[in-house]
Amino acid sequence: MSLATQPPRLHGARAARRTAPELLSLTTLRPDLVEVSSAQRVLGFVEVVDHVFVSLAGSRYDIAVEVTQQIDFTRALTALQEGNSDDDR
Length: 89
What we know:
The protein is α+β, with helices and mostly antiparallel strands and about 90 residues long. It has one domain. It has helices at about 15, 75-85, and strands at about 1-5, 20-30, 35-40, 40-50, 50-55, 65-70. It has a six-stranded antiparallel beta sheet with strand order 1-2-3-4-5-6, with helices on one face.
């Protein structure tokens, strides 16, 4: 399953680099765990805990680091995108 998400509005130099939405690939590993990839690279995972989506950054679930907790799934995905966009500089 793939999902294109629109990044939030950015100002200044970062805005120019993020003009197109990033295509994400989502793979369900368990009913409560989704792997999030972009351009053949694992960005992290989104885990469902009760009614909260927990974003975990990293290519391996066992050592991924929590970056945010959101009530909205799209915001959980956006947190993973934003965290990994700094790596491309």
